[in-house]
């Protein structure tokens, strides 16, 4: 599927409500359970999403628009949300994600993006040349990847409880997972 800015913006605008729906009712172990070493719990995913709003998508879009490939993006600290938001209660985290996403969408709108701007290239420190359109498509896909991660983590809390139905549920199968 080709990138469409209008569609992408609609997906991005829904993200805070999707995340809120997935995690707001959670308490205790449901909120802090993970899938093992090197994986994140639902609340850690929310902290990460917030940190991405602060230090990833819009700063990198600005970098492309202002500097093109002449300056590489700053490396992104995937764990930055833990240090900055680790002590925040869930309700405050969800509100902050919604606030920051709305602010970032206003900023995105202010860029008045068109096809030539979406084709502008920046420099990723590990990937090399990337376009603004690719960055924005990744922002959308990143949200969906984390919805899946939250859902999978929650479903797997009942891995033992589902009994023999486990064999029919791909979400319950063991395998490599990423934070």
Descriptive terms for the model:
two-stranded antiparallel ribbon, 4% strand, 179 residues, mainly alpha, 8 helices, Four Helix Bundle (Hemerythrin (Met), subunit A)
**Beta strands, count:** 2
- Net shape: globular
Q: H/E order of the elements? A: HHHHHHHEEH
> On the 0-100 scale, what is the average pLDDT?
95
Tell me the name of the CATH class.
Answer: Mainly Alpha
**Count of folded domains:** 1
N-C termini distance: 26 Å
By helix and strand content, what is the structural category? mainly alpha
* Uncertain regions spanning at least 5 consecutive residues: none
Biggest sheet strand line-up: 1-2
Helix content: 55-70%
CATH superfamily: dinb family like domain
Total count of helical runs of at least 4 residues: 8
How is this structure best described in words?
This protein has 179 residues and is mainly alpha-helical. It has a single domain, classed as Four Helix Bundle (Hemerythrin (Met), subunit A) (Up-down Bundle). 58% of the residues lie in helices and 4% in strands. The protein contains 8 helices and 2 strands. The chain has helices at residues 5-23, 29-32, 42-55, 57-67, 80-85, 90-110, 115-118, 132-155; strands at 121-124, 128-131. Strands 1-2 form a two-stranded antiparallel sheet. A hairpin with a 3-residue loop joins strand 1 (121-124) and strand 2. Helix 1 packs antiparallel against helix 6 (90-110), helix 1 (5-23) runs parallel beside helix 8 and helix 3 (42-55) runs parallel beside helix 6 (90-110). The chain is globular.
């Amino acid at each position: 599927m080709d990138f469409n800015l209008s569609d992408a913006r609609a997906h991005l605008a829904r993200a805070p409500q999707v995340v809120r729906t997935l995690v707001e009712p959670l308490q205790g172990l449901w909120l802090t359970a993970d899938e093992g070493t090197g994986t994140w719990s639902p609340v850690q995913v929310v902290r990460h999403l917030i940190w991405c709003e602060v230090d990833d998508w819009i700063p990198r879009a600005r970098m492309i628009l202002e500097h093109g490939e002449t300056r590489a993006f700053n490396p992104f600290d995937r764990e930055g949300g833990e240090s900055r938001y680790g002590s925040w209660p869930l309700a405050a985290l969800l509100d902050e994600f919604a606030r920051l996403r709305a602010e970032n969408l206003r900023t995105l709108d202010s860029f008045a993006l068109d096809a030539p701007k979406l084709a502008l290239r920046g420099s990723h420190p590990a990937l090399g040349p990337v376009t603004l359109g690719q960055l924005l498509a990744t922002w959308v896909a990143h949200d969906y990847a984390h919805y899946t991660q939250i859902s999978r983590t929650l479903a797997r809390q009942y891995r033992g409880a589902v009994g023999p139905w486990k064999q029919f549920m791909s979400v319950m199968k063991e395998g490599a997972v990423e934070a």
